[in-house]
Amino acid sequence: MTAQRVTGDGEAGRGQENGTPLLEVRDLVVHHGQLRALDAISLRVLPGEVYAIIGANGAGKSTLLRTIAGLHQPTSGSILFDGKDVSGLRPDRRAAQGIGMVPEGRRLFGSLTVEENLKVGATYARQGPWNIEQVYDMFGWMRERRGQLTAQLSGGEQQAVALGRALVANPRVLMLDELSLGLAPVVVQRIYGMLPQILQTGLTILLVEQDVSQALRVASHIQCLLEGRTTLEGRPADVTADQVEAAYFGLAGDGPAGRPGEGSEQ
Amino acid sequence: MAWVNAIIQGVLTGGLYALFACGLSLMFGVMKVVNLAHGDLAVIAGYLAIFVITVLHVPVLWSVVIVLPVMAAGGYLLQRTLIQSALDRGVLTTLIVTFGLSVVIENGLLEFFTANSRGIGAGMTLVTGSFKIGSQIYIAYLLLLIFAVAVVVLLGLQYFLSRSKYGRLIRAVADDREAAQLAGADYRHVFGIASGIALGTVALGGIAYGMYSNLDPTTGTDTILLFAFAAVVIGGLGSLWGTLLGGVVLGVAQQVGAQINISDELLAGYIVFLAVLVLRPQGLISRRAGS
Amino acid sequence: MSLATQTIPDLAGDVRVTRSRRNVAWTGAAALIIVAVLAYFPYIVYSGTTAILVQAFIVLTMASMWNLLAGYAGLVSVGQQGFVGLGAYFVLILALHGLSPFAALPVAAIASGVAALPLWWLVSRLRSGYFAIATWVLAATIMLIIEKFTSIGGGSGMPLPGFAGMNPTLLTADTYWAGLAVTVLALAGIYLLLRGRLGLVLTAIRDDEVAARSSGARVGLARLLVFVVAGAGCGAAGAVLAISQLQVQPEAVFSIQWTAEMAFATIIGGLGTIEGPIIGTIVYMVLQQTLASYNAWYLIILGLVAIVVALFARRGLWGLVDERLNIRLFPVGYWLRTGDGTSKGP
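Above: the input entities. Below: the structure tokens describing the complete assembly.
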């Protein structure tokens, strides 16, 4: 199944849109041992937008973010940040360039307090509008509880701290890996509700979500992955629910997963 | 009264053992590395101090000021080169490489300095003297000094880890290396700092031991490494003050053993160590499981 | 599901799974010839040479055991010298009660293996670094306990009885054959052990322990078996050591040097291969003989080489040979034999 590149107004693709991409991935191939997790993935994230990557479990979404962050080495392909090839940089060097990430499962420093977690995030911070006080202002409850160990916080609160830790470094592109994982819907809404505030400070967001409707609500551009390949790409306004469903599950025509029950009809 | 003296001696010796142990605990806690050459590096520090004192005619306590930074820097370099390479290749390789390093150091010392034991003679009443409490309790000045130094070092370490930027980074990297990298930390550099600190403390322990007793090429493993590890296990991994507690328990066990039978000093210590290993492997003060 | 990217070769004809390739039959025959020649040595060679060979046999046996522990079961033991000492002292104790040391040898080996059982109980739950140091402490503890018994020599040791009136040439030859027998049995035993179920379980553990456990492999039992065998093997080596030195001294038989030698020989030769310890022992003996007058130097060089090999040539010298020539003297893996030729197994 070839990727459906859905654009509005008959445009030929993102290349025609104005602005150079802040983050660009070209033909990225990533393996986990012998398993090909990503098969020649490409994407372009323009400054200031919210780019969402959706897909089922195992589709390769988190692998993509981790590879961009530098935690995983690609087999081939390149990653460009602000026009420069960062493929050879270590994760901490990429962070210094301005690539920030809130990893899947939050990954807070368990033996450190809330404030210490933020301080670590701020250790190698770049210049910018975000600092620890700003984060406390954004999340009203955090200032009072800043001396608590993060293990004592609820899931949503931990997610907030993880988000704050990434923000205080003043990244230029903020990558969010499965923010909604393990959180109640109300909490998820609240956290996603903070995105506009974050965007206002000049950040660009690349997020990965299993919750499709949530992604469609916040994104300015979406890309769907299935088994390491792109099955859909375009603006939320330009895609139909059916198209998304088909891309997500790969049920249309000669999709990678094939048609269930095909052989049994005889 | 001999028993009281024995126990006091054991408690104070615990300070020396804590100096041996805190570096080992730090390295294992942060990097999951058991550096089998830990003790031998302390012996190198001792020999270095002897060299500085006898050849460069530097006063004894000044030798510490010179040797410690050298050892700490050496620790950083050793970590960034040899140990990191071994770590990248797995736990097995790390054990093999540090074991190899231990053998090379010991035999190197044997080759260049012979098997003769040497002491760091401070030549002052500080080192050889003791004072009396009451009529029958003797406390050696040197041991008391070493215990005090150990407490100061532990306090310093605690402050460093809890308040300073690098202390926070060390704890963060120990908790979650990848998340620390995402926050911009070069974990290899942080590992190096932890190793530098570890070697600085164990060097202090080696010099102290050279003053209190004698150093020979095998002291590194026979005495320092095994005692350090015993103190860490008994006290509990993950707890800095646990190394002091563990050292004290070990020291007391040894002195009690010596009271029972003069040649059973070492054996008593080992038996207590093995008992803790079997019955309570997480140690007396446990923050996280040790094995 | 199209996730797999490796294409499976188109197999023409039937496919058979075999234990070894054709040329192994030749190496098997060669091995038998070598053993036969070695057995003949005392008749044709000076006693100085046989003494050196006995040393080599001791190191080779110990190295094979260390390889079994570290290379196959993932257990880095820095305390095998404890079993070496136990083996030596078991021989001493039996000899003091009238048994010929040569007859005591097999008993000592078995006793060492049995002694490994309670020791395993002490250390089995420990991981890597903790396990290593615990074995070291155990060995040191065993030595200290044994030194308390003056009836077997206390701290200074004692000569090994049972050789009174024996023809020196015969004694040298018997010692040599004992050493050869122990080594051959050790290697053969390890080979057979790894060729069977144990070998499969150990390889599975090496690749992925969690998966191995969940598929039912008795991981704990496999490790116990390896520890016991290694204990018996090192005990046998210690028994040969006692016989060859005609005395048993605690500091000598319990020395950490044995672990250093067996570990370095294994690593340089090739960890995780049965052939490795053989090559490593040869390297060790060559080094030791050429640097004999330089005391500690051969250990320094051996140690440095071992470090370099561990970092840069993980499978040791044998690994380098194996990759080029694709031969296995001791076939413990499986080969996939297709109609046209063979493709490599694990």
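Note for the figure: The interface with chain C takes residues 31, 34-36, 227-228, 256-257 of chain A (CB under 8 Å).
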